[in-house]
Amino acid sequence: MSAHSTTSTPAALLSETEFRGLLRVSERKFKALRAAAVIPPPLELGPRVARWTHDDYLKVVEALPRREKAPEPQRLHDGRRARIERMKVTGQ
Questions:
Q1: HSE-up of 68 (CA within 13 Å, CB side)?
Q2: Interval 57-67: pLDDT, tens
Q3: What predicted TM-score, i.e. pTM, was given to this entire model?
Q4: Domain contains 14
Q5: How far from 66 is each of 30, 36, 42, 80, 81, CA to CA, in Å?
Q6: Domain range spanning residue 36?
């Protein structure tokens, strides 16, 4: 058996780059999420070493709002319905 595990386990601590990579957001978006307090403050391991836990990542994902499916605008619905009715009449 090799010393390296073949299963992927999350790192105990995530750098900003790793955290952004998991979220798949740009540096700019990450900074905006931090400013909006969506992303918690990092653990300060040194003057220039900030890390987040994997639990921080999971909490952020759970807290992100879900996009609700908006109803179709009435004007769009009416136009689509009118095209369908015209197609029925012309036989196309």
A1: 3
A2: 999 999 888 88
A3: 0.61
A4: yes
A5: 18, 17, 24, 28, 30
A6: 7-64
Q: What is the CATH number of the domain that holds 18?
A: 1.10.1660
The answer to whether the CB of 64 falls within 8 A of the CB of 38 is: yes
- Rg of the chain in Å (alpha carbons): 24
* Token pair belonging to 89: 């009449």
Domain count within the chain: 1
- Please tell me what DSSP assigns to residue 91: T
87 within some domain:
no
Contact 30, 23 (CB under 8 A): yes
Residue 47 belongs to some domain of the structure = yes
